[in-house]
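Project standup — Tuesday

K.O.: blocked on the structure for the chain from last sprint. Re-posting the sequence here as requested.
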Amino acid sequence: MLDRDLAELYQVETRSLNQAVKRNTDRFPDDFMFQVSEKEYIFLRSQFVILEGKGKYPKYLPYVFTEQGIAMLSSVLKSKIAIQINIQIIRTFTRLRELMSTNEMLRHKIESIERKQESYDKSLAGIFQLIEKLVEEETQPKPEIGFRVKRNEP
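H.V.: unblocked you, prediction finished:
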């Protein structure tokens, strides 16, 4: 999540959030938080349809926090609202992970069913071929079995 979005959730100014993080840099390694590049920032800005007044978009490159970084924010931002918001964010991440896991299990089940279906299709195709051969054999004239007696007719 972007620093400004988190600041809005925690009801603090973005600069206050970033200042608290900078005071505790040892708690935020690169896999917890990183700063976007200029190219990424330009792309982000292009996604906003309406610019909302002068100064709405900061002149610095924003920070992005991973799930672990957001969890660490609760130890840096000590207000009650920050703790409550942080709990809700972590619950949301947990629920998303559960949904992804459920979807993954569902995908595996569907693939398993499709593989079984392919196997059944092949088996059924073989059965149908045998039935077709039997039907063809029945429709072909069969040679007569036995002796023919020639009768002399007067």
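K.O.: great, moving the ticket to review. The helical segments are 3-10, 14-22, 38-46, 67-76, 80-139. The chain has a mean pLDDT of 80.
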